[in-house]
Structure formats: C-alpha cells, structure tokens
C-alpha cells in the first residue's frame, strides 16, 4: 500500500487514444510527473476510422479538445434530436431503413491519425514521450517503486504504471503473471492452483470467430457513383444475411471508412480478402453496393476480445482501455470507454495527490467503478451483434418491415445510454468514495 506522498511519477505504457488522453488529464496536476512509453518508433499515421458517442465527447470538451477535434470531422455534435445511425436491410424486393435517433444522439467519426494528432497537440511539453520502448517486464524495488525493463535493454522507474498498451498488453501479461505467482504461493496445498490458472487465462486475447474487413477510400469515388448517398450525412449500417457493413465519412468528409463483418468466416479458405468480399456482398442493394464497389484494397482483421478480468488493478499497476476490456466493436464504444477510463483514473489520482490522500485507495476505487461498467458495455456490444443476426429472421416477407422496426427499436434501446447519460455522476461518486475512505 502507498504512503501519503506529495509528488508522484506515473508512467504510461502505450501512446494510443487511452494513453494520450490519460497523459493530458494527469498533466493538469503540478504534483504529478507523467511520461509516455510507446513501443513503436513513432506515432505513425496508421489505422482507419474511430467513432465517439456524446458521452465520451463531453469528456473531451471538458478537457479543452473540442475546438481542434471539430476541425477534423464533418459531424457537428448538437443538443437537438439527431440521426446517429441509419440502419438498412433488404428482403426480396425492398430496401428498408430505420433511423437510430434521440435527443443529442450524434455519432462523431474521425480518422484515427487525425484524432491522435489533436491529442499530441494538447500533450504538454513537460510530458516526455519515449519511442521504441517495448515493455518486457517489471518488478517492485525495495523502496516500493516499479522498475521497468524494456526489450532494448533500457530500464526506468515510476510510482504507478498505467497499462494502456492495447489488446496484446505487455502490462496485463506481467500483472496477471505476478498475481498468479502470488496466488500459487497462497494456495500451495492446491495442485494445480485453479485460481492462478484462471488469472493466467486472461493474458492472451480470446478469438471471437468474427472477421472484420476494413478499408478507407476517397469520398469523391462514392460521389461519382451515387452523388446524394446517405453515407455523406449519416453513419450507415447495412445488415445482409451473412455479413454486416458500417460506413461513415472521416477526415472532414474527404474519406469514407468502411468495415464489413463476416459472421461466418471459413478458417480453411484460401480466398483473398477481395474475393471473400464479393461473396459476402452478393445480391446486396445497389445503394450499398455503390459503397462496396469503391473499395480497391481491403484488409482482414480477426476480432479478439479480452476475457473479463477479476481486477484492473494490482498494487501500483493499473490497466485502462483495450488492455483491460477490449470488446467486440458493435457499439462503437471501444475508444469511448478508454477515454472514460482515463478521465476517472486521472481525476482520482490527481485529487488524491493534491489532497494528501493515499493513491492506493484511488486505484481501488477506480477498479470498483470502471471495471463493472466497462465489462457491462462489452456485454451490450455482444448483445448488439445478436440483434444484427435477428434482422433476417422475419417470419415472412410481408411482415419484414414491422419485424425490422422492432429490432431497430431494441438496438436503439441498447445504445441510448451513449447519448442519454454522462460520466459526471460516476466522477462525483468516485471522488465521494475517496473522501469517505480517508475518514473511515
């Protein structure tokens, strides 16, 4: 457990959305020194589109990022009723649409590289970023610090290590290995130690059996084929019988980002991604095929998730974002949950150090609040995938429209929390719990 301290050194492993957001938030506190360690040699302009719901957007607004982010997107968050997603499907004869909407329901979309550049712009100069630092392991020193060892032979030390290093997190691997080792020592009479084995089962990501094909192409190509296409105004989700497509504009509307989910991939197939795409999209509606026909190169992504962890915290090591709860992307909430993690963690640590309270309590409270919520979002995301599969289970062509609307209403209900709630209550609860913990 930590003693009360007046200065704290925090090292973030991972310079993605969650890690950089957390670094920006922590840097607001003068008594916290922050460093970011990134395994890549630079912040390369890679990746496709990301999406944000109003719940996450309001955090970024509070942190002062809204103006610069608005310059990178064609969607403008509003408080009035907005169409977040246009859901589309077809039966034998007709293309059916259902608009997922509500007051303030805006689905903001960005190119990942554009979003990352805004975060870097707001990262204070005092926050040092170290590249080509792939964490190999860490250990606790005699003075209760954490010594980190990197693949290149270098080392560093900190008071708190934050694992924001993605779904294949090195921090998670080391943390769970240490927990399993301690569990084995505690339950030496149990051979094998089932608790230790259950901890280690969370090290490797779990394959979902879903493949997502991703592509980005210039918007002018779609404008040439279908000048007034709905994808220029709204996020489009099209549900075919064996695959699901999502498309939306990014980079100020200059690019179209698409993802096509293959629900029934054949691991033994020798087909390339382009050939598989033709099979998945066979007989789709012309309005949707106008999007598909613009794709020249598409890349497969085998979707994995992180098994539900027993804790996001072990002593002075803490996980956030995909390293803690990587989820199926059917709610478009992975980035948003990383931002929420970063906001709550930074708020608790900053308040603890500023008020002279023990930061160990702050980490425990972070875990007690964020872990159940993020894992519930992961369950909602999985449920959304099940709803997609129900769209083409209508009893008859004549009743398809009513059935489709019913599924759309259930999908809207599963999404409503993303625009109808904020993180404010969670932040207040976290701070209240921290105050009460020191009086107990």
Main attributes?
440 residues; FAD/NAD(P)-binding domain; D-Amino Acid Oxidase, Chain A, domain 2; 2 domains; seven-stranded mixed β-sheet; six-stranded mixed β-sheet
Question: Any chance you could write out the topology, listing elements then pairs?
Answer:
Layout: E1 8-13, H1 17-26, E2 32-37, E3 49-52, H2 54-62, H3 66-70, E4 81-90, E5 95-103, E6 108-111, H4 112-121, E7 128-130, E8 135-140, E9 146-150, E10 155-158, E11 160-163, H5 170-186, H6 194-200, E12 206-218, H7 219-225, E13 235-239, E14 243-250, E15 255-262, H8 273-280, H9 286-292, E16 299-305, E17 313-314, E18 317-319, H10 322-325, H11 334-355, H12 359-390, H13 400-415, H14 417-420, H15 424-439
Parallel strand pairs: 1-2, 1-11, 2-7, 4-13, 11-18
Antiparallel strand pairs: 3-6, 4-5, 8-9, 9-10, 12-15, 12-16, 13-14, 14-15, 17-18
Helix pairs in contact: 1-4, 1-11, 2-11, 5-6, 11-12, 11-15, 12-13, 12-15
Name the poorly predicted regions. Answer: none
Q: How many DSSP-defined strands?
A: 18
Assigned CATH class of the largest domain:
Alpha Beta
CATH-derived topology of the largest domain: FAD/NAD(P)-binding domain
Strand order of the largest sheet: 5-4-13-14-15-12-16
Q: CATH homologous superfamily of the largest domain - what is it? A: FAD/NAD(P)-binding domain
Anisotropy-based shape: globular
Tally of discrete structural domains:
2
The computed structural class is: alpha/beta
* Annotated CATH architecture of the largest domain: 3-Layer(bba) Sandwich
N-C termini distance: 16 Å
What is the number of helices? Answer: 15
Mean residue pLDDT = 89
Main β-sheet: number of strands, strand sense, barrel status? 7 strands, mixed
Strand content: 15-25%
Helix content: 25-40%
Rg, please?
23 Å
